[in-house]
TrEMBL record:
<feature type="domain" description="Glucose-1-phosphate adenylyltransferase/Bifunctional protein GlmU-like C-terminal hexapeptide">
    <location>
        <begin position="306"/>
        <end position="409"/>
    </location>
</feature>
<dbReference type="InterPro" id="IPR011831">
    <property type="entry name" value="ADP-Glc_PPase"/>
</dbReference>
<keyword id="KW-0320">Glycogen biosynthesis</keyword>
<feature type="site" description="Could play a key role in the communication between the regulatory and the substrate sites">
    <location>
        <position position="105"/>
    </location>
</feature>
<protein>
    <recommendedName>
        <fullName>Glucose-1-phosphate adenylyltransferase</fullName>
        <ecNumber>2.7.7.27</ecNumber>
    </recommendedName>
</protein>
<dbReference type="InterPro" id="IPR029044">
    <property type="entry name" value="Nucleotide-diphossugar_trans"/>
</dbReference>
<feature type="domain" description="Nucleotidyl transferase">
    <location>
        <begin position="15"/>
        <end position="283"/>
    </location>
</feature>
<dbReference type="GO" id="GO:0008878">
    <property type="term" value="F:glucose-1-phosphate adenylyltransferase activity"/>
</dbReference>
<dbReference type="InterPro" id="IPR005835">
    <property type="entry name" value="NTP_transferase_dom"/>
</dbReference>
<keyword id="KW-0119">Carbohydrate metabolism</keyword>
<dbReference type="Pfam" id="PF00483">
    <property type="entry name" value="NTP_transferase"/>
</dbReference>
<keyword id="KW-0321">Glycogen metabolism</keyword>
<keyword id="KW-0808">Transferase</keyword>
<feature type="binding site">
    <location>
        <position position="106"/>
    </location>
    <ligand>
        <name>alpha-D-glucose 1-phosphate</name>
    </ligand>
</feature>
<comment type="pathway">
    <text>Glycan biosynthesis; glycogen biosynthesis.</text>
</comment>
<dbReference type="GO" id="GO:0005978">
    <property type="term" value="P:glycogen biosynthetic process"/>
</dbReference>
<dbReference type="InterPro" id="IPR056818">
    <property type="entry name" value="GlmU/GlgC-like_hexapep"/>
</dbReference>
Length: 418
């Protein structure tokens, strides 16, 4: 048991794994990594993990990037350059750069840390908090650090309680009565239940806490192991479950909630439908995720923009938005917006209509366009009079339409219509 006083976060480094493509988002990740995808009108997905680290008191942060990283790196440079070395703070962007071999990129999540051991050691953190950079949630990592020290675990794994048969798409922790992990099963057909709760399972969130010295030892051991895929979930965690002490940390105990948030909120927005739903959920009167909680702010790169503007006030040509989020520098010019989220710099022109639309930055919606249940990628120019959402068969031919009827629209798709 660790009896020290004061926060452990000041002796920790957060290491964010942000190299994944997110192929289930299809064309949305053709030009950017999944952590760089826009969310909530003015933020990126990675801002949640980074903000959690900062709000938890962690002042040393590293971000490992790989797939199509330019958009992500540019965002990090613009929005996260306020951490200062003279205050014992650091922020390192760590692209796959063949630092230990001229032939080797990051082979897996563990390898993305292993290749930067020298940088980690130069800062000398006592603890490492390993994070995925592609989930939406608010969490105080200090609580997890305290549990890690008090339990004497080799690794602590953040887990979320989910209905047992919904856990088939996760790595599932089989735990004993003290939440010690006794087995780790990747995407099981019959997930093991939590003791005393036969209908509930513990799904791994891809968040791990180690002491730095122990983690480095394990990374070096894994690197010397023939056949390893160099991955935390596939290799390191199962090894430690079998040969060490792995402890589960329940997300509900460290999830940050404002007074208006009813429960522990965590989302993987890795599909178009999940991404669409999570964004539109923010338009609810009392959303499950509170972006207005000043006690746990969502840090991001904030562009200097003029306010949103609504113009024209005649029947059939009234600039209005109901049950919607509208970011700065948007102009709603005689357009009707309902239950939609408009990111920075959108222009929606006269007689157009958006109903359940997630519109990314700097899109133009042409006059008379009618769009229902759409995700519109950044910078798309919707032509005058385009109708989406009325004819499923036609929509499927022109755009990427999901089984739930959500259409993803990109500029190349629009260009093919001409």
């Amino acid at each position: 048991m660790d009896n020290r006083k004061g926060p452990l976060a000041r002796d920790a480094m957060a290491y964010v794994l942000a190299g994944g493509r997110g192929s289930r988002l299809h064309e949305m990740t053709d030009t950017r990594a999944k952590p760089a995808v826009y969310f909530g009108g003015k933020s990126r997905i990675i801002d949640f993990a980074l903000s959690n680290a900062l709000n938890s008191g962690i002042r040393r942060i590293g971000v490992a990037t790989q797939y199509k990283a330019h958009s992500l790196i540019r965002h990090l440079q613009r929005g996260w350059n306020f951490l200062r070395p003279e205050r014992n703070e650091s922020f390192d962007i760590l692209p796959a750069s063949q630092r230990i071999s001229e032939f080797q990129w990051y082979e897996g999540t563990a390898d993305a840390v292993f290749q930067n051991i020298d940088i980690i050691e130069s800062y000398g953190p006592e603890f490492m908090v390993i994070l995925a950079g592609d989930h939406i949630y608010k969490m105080d990592y200090e609580v997890m650090l305290q549990q890690h020290c008090n339990s004497g675990a080799d690794v602590t794994v953040a887990c979320m309680e989910v209905p047992r048969m919904e856990a088939t798409g996760f790595g599932v922790m089989h735990v004993d009565g003290d939440d010690r992990i006794i087995d780790f099963i990747e995407k099981p057909k019959d997930p093991p239940a939590i003791p005393g709760s036969p209908d509930v399972a513990l799904a791994s969130l891809g968040i791990y806490v180690f002491t730095t010295r122990f983690l480095i030892e394990q990374l070096r051991r894994d690197a010397d192991t023939p056949g390893s895929s160099r991955d935390f979930g596939k290799d390191l965690i199962p090894y430690l479950v079998e040969h060490g002490k792995a402890q589960a940390h329940r997300f509900s105990s460290s999830c940050v909630r404002s007074a208006g948030e009813p429960g522990a909120y965590w989302r993987d927005v890795g599909t178009i439908d999940a991404y669409f739903d999570a964004n539109l959920d923010l338009t609810d009167v009392v959303p499950e995720l509170d972006l207005y909680d000043h006690s746990w702010p969502l840090w991001t790169y904030s562009e200097i923009t003029p306010p949103a503007k609504f113009v024209h006030d005649v029947d059939g040509r009234r600039g209005s938005a109901v049950a919607s989020l509208v970011a700065g520098n948007c102009i709603i010019s005689g357009s009707s917006i309902h239950r939609s989220l408009l990111s920075t710099g959108v222009r929606s022109h006269s007689f157009s209509m958006l109903d359940e639309a997630v519109v990314l930055p700097y899109c133009h919606i042409g006059r008379g366009a009618r769009l229902r249940r759409v995700v519109i990628d950044r910078g798309v120019h919707i032509p005058d009079g385009l109708v989406v959402g009325d004819d499923p068969l036609l929509d499927s031919k022109r755009f990427r339409r999901t089984d739930k009827g959500v259409c993803l629209i990109t500029q190349p798709m629009i260009d093919r219509l001409v």
